[in-house]
Amino acid sequence: MPDLFKSFGRGQRTSATTVEHPALQVKPRHIGIIMDGNGRWAKKRGLPRMAGHHAGMLAMREAIRACDDFGIECVTLYVFSTENWKRPVAEVEYLMRLPEQFFRNEIDELIKRGVKIRFLGDTSRLPSYTQETVRTSMQRTEHNTGMTVNFALNYGGRTELMSAIERYAKEVAEGRATVGDLTEAKFDRYLDTAGLPPLDLIIRTSGEIRLSNFLLWQAAYAELWFTEVLWPDFTRDDLFQAISDYGKRKRRFGAIE
After folding, report:
1. Does the active-site annotation cover 245?
2. Residues 49-74: tens digit of each pLDDT
3. Is the pLDDT of residue 252 over 80?
4. What's the pLDDT band for 23 if we cut at 50, 70, 90?
5. What is the chain's Cα-based Rg?
6. How far is it between the farthest Cα atoms of the chain?
7. Going by fewer Cβ within 10 Å, which terminus of the chain is more open, N or C?
8. From the candidates 3, 68, 84, 144, which is the catalytic residue?
9. Residue 5: its pLDDT value, please?
């Protein structure tokens, strides 16, 4: 990382206390996080957008640690969407380098924590160096049995659904599946999230109130939690508040309480 970015912190908001996870009586098994606001964080400070993405990477590291400390079973982080290719070439190239930097610095701690790494989305379109990072990080953690961390990289909910339908249609054509036997539970097996716990909670930062093509099928009955906090300023206390609010909600799934 260039020395220029080493002086960039995560903002002025700090965590006054260290919150221990036993205080969370009702917790989601699977949390999805739309990490939004890196560019605005940088603009507010007169910094280049890349500085915001670097600060966002540090916030992501802390969020992973906090989720593990709070006993969350699975977390999915929206890193790069299928729509993000529309951004300036220099910014996209920088974003494609961040996974390499992140895992170079953090993989040992993730392994120590027993974290298992997965990637959602079409990684075949990524640059070769990013694909190598994807392969290496998954291989080094494939036997871990702790929290699962999914990085949604070149991911889009609609693309995932189309790919799932294509996989199902191929199995039908090959005689390995039968038309008319498809159920919601069976369809789950064709998704990128196959084998993962149901999505319970989606967190989105920066004040935007939309899903932005994130886990559309999985979000059907997920609880939504929005905050004005820009992602680089998102702290362990913010995560604790989101999980605490989740624990107070009544999840009826269409039934009567």
Report:
1. no
2. 999 999 999 999 999 999 999 999 99
3. no
4. low
5. 19
6. 59
7. C
8. 84
9. 39
pTM of the predicted protein model: 0.89
What is the per-residue pLDDT for 11? 40
Sequence-separated contacts (24+) of 127-134 with Cβ below 8 Å = 127/96, 129/96, 129/97, 129/100, 130/96, 130/97, 130/99, 130/100, 133/99, 133/100, 133/103, 134/99
Measured in whole angstroms, how far is the alpha carbon of residue 38 from the centre of its chain?
Answer: 15
Task: Please confirm, yes or no, whether 84 is among the known catalytic residues.
Answer: yes
**157 is written with which tokens?**
């909910």
pLDDT at residue 233 tops 70: yes
What amino acid occupies position 70? Answer: F
**Cα–Cα dist 170/208, whole Å:** 38
